Amino acid sequence: MSKKVGEKLAxxxxxxxxxxxxxxxxxxxxxxxxxxxxxxMREVExxxxxxxxxxxxxYGDRLKLASQFAQVEYVKELxxxxxxxxxxxxxxxxxxxxxDSVSAFAQHExxxxxxxxxxxxxxxxxxxPLSFAANAMSQALAEYAIRQxxxxxxxxxxxxxxxKTWRGEDAAPSxxxxxxxxxxxxxxxxxxxxxxxxxxxxxxxxxYERKQAEVPEIKL
Length: 220
Fold this sequence. Notes:
220 residues; alpha/beta; nine-stranded mixed sheet; 38% helix; globular
């Protein structure tokens, strides 16, 4: 990645207020959430932990790439992901932790149920309990984020908004909604004919509310 692109990324996350607290980054599949996350992590001068949960990430080049500039873990269980994140934050002040993605744990749970029950599980039977678990654990993460000056990105897939819109957007973050009261900000990564943009959907610091910044083309 060029120095110019790196500088733009660093400026982007600073301008949007995404380098402290718990942040949810969501967007459509393939829009570039992982690329953005790894691009930012590469530029940040902090102790870094990248936790991968996507079933197709383990054997890809992204994990190898991330290991060049961050500690990397691959997990299949939501409690394990949060446990590793908390342990890392407790040991290292001013850390940057990314869980990519929280939505994927529902896929793991679905696969386990299908193998045990031999039939397609009901989505709500999976997503519901996981959402409650994410809620409780994100509260713990938020507490330690404040105490240890940590940055935590929770990467999520998007799903259609229930009703007309969700905070003005036609899509909401999948599986992470119950954790909203514990997060500092929520941002949506979108791709249009004009480019790729990171849009602040919610931020507790009103200086950043509804801001939008173009994401440079990142080559990892």
